[in-house]
Design a protein that fits this description.
By secondary structure, the protein is an alpha+beta fold. The chain has seven helices and seven strands. It has two domains: about 35 residues, GTP cyclohydrolase I, N-terminal domain (GTP Cyclohydrolase I, Chain A, domain 1, Orthogonal Bundle); about 140 residues, GTP cyclohydrolase I, C-terminal domain/NADPH-dependent 7-cyano-7-deazaguanine reductase, N-terminal domain (GTP Cyclohydrolase I, domain 2). Strand 2 and strand 3 form a beta hairpin. Helix 1 packs across helix 2, helix 3 runs parallel beside helix 5 and helix 4 packs across helix 5.
Length: about 190
């Protein structure tokens, strides 16, 4: 399914009229098209399978050597909160304990980007990333830490401009406090 740009443009024009503005005035006349183009980018992950990304980039871990923690820190991401259709953005820290397979590090960032490019909740996003890594790599453990700022928190209600939300999703050997403490120390978060 691709984004229906014509429907988005019509909806944005209606929204502008509904808030009392004129969608045909010079400053707004191209806004519906701009929003449709932005939404096509924001929601490009709806039709992409993150597990397929991992499977396409895997290699055997080596001569039976499973290895220690693989941790990729500070992956920048942005997503769109499904409650208010306002953006949230932050950093993802993704780690796994290899089983029989490893994956190119760029694939981890692609998984984060793919799952973030959907209407999302931060809590679910972390769980989906962890599930994709677990299914796609069959590692001994997975840890995903997301630290993000939400425009709905910054621009509405409480208007807390500097507040961030931290969520943790873990699987396997990294799901216990002892198992994840090393990874959290390496990330620089709470142990």
């Amino acid at each position: 399914m691709t984004v229906d740009s014509s429907r988005i443009e019509a909806a944005v024009a209606e929204l502008l009229a509904a808030i009392g503005d004129d969608p045909t005035r010079p400053g707004l006349v191209r806004t519906p098209r701009r929003v449709a183009e932005a939404y096509a980018e924001y929601f490009a992950g709806l039709d992409v399978d993150p597990v397929a990304i991992l499977r396409a980039g895997q290699d055997a871990a080596g001569d039976g050597e499973r290895g220690d923690l693989v941790l990729l820190r500070d992956l920048e991401f942005r997503s769109m909160c499904e409650h208010h259709l306002l953006p949230f953005r932050g950093r993802a820290h993704v780690g796994y304990l290899p089983g029989a397979k490893v994956v190119g590090l760029g694939r981890l960032g692609q998984v984060v980007e793919t799952l973030a490019a959907r209407p999302q909740l931060q809590e679910r996003l972390g769980e989906q990333i962890a599930d994709a890594l677990d299914e796609g790599l069959a590692p001994r453990g997975v840890l995903v830490v997301l630290d993000a700022q939400h425009d709905c928190v910054a621009a509405r209600d409480a208007r807390q401009m500097r507040a961030s939300t931290v969520t943790i999703a873990s699987r396997g050997e990294l799901s216990t406090p002892a198992g994840r403490s090393e990874a959290l120390i390496l990330i620089g978060g709470p142990a």
